[in-house]
Amino acid sequence: METAEAATVDSVESKIEFGVPSKAIRNYIDAHDIDFAILGTLGQTDLSRYMMGGVSAKIVRTSPVPVM
């Protein structure tokens, strides 16, 4: 938030949701008419993370909008 505000980004919003992260993010996208999502990742590369997928990977696979 601080970095975006310091860069004078026009619209910055922070929200805390509870539940399964990928479902909560998808629900938020749907509920707020989001048309583009930007997500960060930790870049973990171990086998379990690859096999199970992280939250960002799940969002990329299931999001109703483009994700970067």
Please outline the helices and strands.
Layout lengths: L1 H5 L14 H11 L15 H6 L2 H8 L6
Helix pairs in contact: 2-4
Throw out a few tags for this protein:
68 residues, mainly alpha, 44% helix
Describe the 3D structure.
It is a single chain. 44% of the residues lie in helices and 0% in strands. The chain has 68 residues and is mainly alpha-helical. α2 packs across α4. The longest helix has 11 residues.
Work out the strand percent: under 5%
Based on Cα principal axes, name the global outline. globular
> Count of helical segments?
4
Rg on CA atoms, Å: 14 Å
Which percent range fits the helix content? 40-55%
Count of DSSP strands: 0
**Alpha-beta content class:** mainly alpha
How far is it from the N-terminal to the C-terminal residue, by CA?
A: 18 Å
Low-confidence stretches: none
Mean pLDDT: 80
- Give the SSE order as H and E letters: HHHH
How does the major sheet shape up? Answer: none
Quick take:
With 68 residues, the chain is mainly α. It is built from four helices and no strands.
